[in-house]
Write a structure and sequence with these properties.
The protein is an alpha+beta fold and 321 residues long. Helices cover 23% and strands 13% of the residues. It has helices at residues 12-20, 46-51, 58-68, 78-90, 167-180, 206-209, 213-216, 286-298, and strands at 4-6, 36-37, 43-44, 95-97, 103-107, 119-124, 146-150, 156-160, 193-198, 222-225. A five-stranded mixed beta sheet has the order 4-5-9-6-10. Strands 1-8-7 form a three-stranded antiparallel beta sheet. Helix 1 packs parallel to helix 5 and helix 3 crosses helix 5 (167-180). The two termini are 19 Å apart.
Length: 321
């Protein structure tokens, strides 16, 4: 779960040279006070184009602003799939889809790469959907609102307004779409591309687990997975994950008719983060902190627990409880 992104890092490094070979996309207005209609008929809040104003490569950041404006929770990727299909058709690029929803867009090789082996570019189109408890936001219908801010000496970052950003894996998908915009000319050296967009990564790797390579027409033997954090590093293995459901006996006491004072304890405003890439950083877990406080209180006479709850996603470090 990427909640903020520094401009000079992450996926945009490796693709800068390739994307700049493409002809520049038209500059989309950032001065409108209302939503802007993108070339693919997606309504983009003005905040999103303002947040990426003057960032390069323009095609990458424009695609990221558009993707951020399309609701794409796990298992509800229909809108972003429609966008990518429309994107491909407007550029006369062929696409195929398998039964689980994975999508491949094919870009012919050109220039000196015309007859080269195909390269698969893979990224997932869903995102982790978390927000602060006091934030009014419906991830099924509302766009992610981008913001640009300073952090540290001379560091400029892109983030979201009180929600997750969706750069996991929106920035990888945006980089792929920017490459797919490359004009097919003899002057542009590019191998055949098979842009693979997988679904439902965040809640079970469903798209990857049920991928039908034959139905998708995949031929590439080399694949670049754009869902990564460490550029210049080669992964030869990875850790898995698991989910557990614990059911414990619960006995409730009847407190009606007793003179008691109700006290609500809240833990909020924590940094949160991804349960994989940030788990070793010692970030505070709101559920654990709340449980520790409750445990200490229950050791006092006359104290009883009414309820406890916290966290939202299985792959996110809880920020509130």
């Amino acid at each position: 779960m990427i909640t903020q992104m520094q401009f000079r890092s992450y996926a945009f490094r490796s693709f800068t040279s390739a994307i700049l070979m493409a002809s520049s996309t038209r500059c989309l207005s950032t001065s409108s006070s209302s939503s802007t209609l993108s070339p693919n008929n997606v309504f983009v809040p003005p905040e999103n184009f303002q947040a990426i104003d003057k960032l390069e490569p323009q095609s990458l950041w424009s695609q990221f602003a558009i993707l951020s404006s399309i609701p794409r929770p796990s298992k509800q990727e229909e809108a972003v799939i429609r966008y990518i299909k429309d994107f491909a058709e407007k550029r006369d690029l062929k696409w195929k889809q398998d039964s689980v929803g994975n999508l491949v867009v094919f870009h012919p090789g050109c220039g000196t790469g015309k007859d080269a082996p195909a390269v698969i570019l893979q990224g997932h189109i869903d995102m982790v959907t978390e927000k602060n408890s006091d934030t009014v936001h419906n991830f099924e219908t509302d766009p992610i609102l981008l913001r640009r801010f300073q952090r540290g000496a001379g560091e400029e970052w892109l983030g979201a307004q009180a929600t997750t950003l969706g750069a996991d894996n929106g920035i990888g998908v945006a980089a792929t779409l920017a490459l797919l915009e490359t004009p097919i000319t003899d002057e542009t050296p590019l191998p055949p591309l098979e842009a693979l967009f997988t679904v439902d990564e965040e809640t079970g790797l469903t798209g990857a687990m049920e991928l039908d390579a034959k139905a998708l027409g995949l031929t590439g033997k080399t694949m670049l997975n754009l869902d990564t954090e460490e550029w210049g590093e080669l992964y030869v293995g990875c850790a898995g994950g698991g989910e557990s459901t614990l059911k414990l006996p619960l006995v409730r006491d009847d407190s009606s008719g007793t003179d008691q004072t109700l006290v609500e304890l809240k833990v909020e405003g924590l940094l949160g983060g991804h349960s994989g890439i940030n788990i070793h950083e010692g970030r505070a877990n709101a559920v654990l902190l709340c449980a520790q406080a409750v445990q200490a209180a229950l050791e006092q006479e006359g104290v009883a627990l009414v309820s406890i709850s916290g966290g939202d996603k299985h792959n996110a470090i809880p920020r509130e409880a």
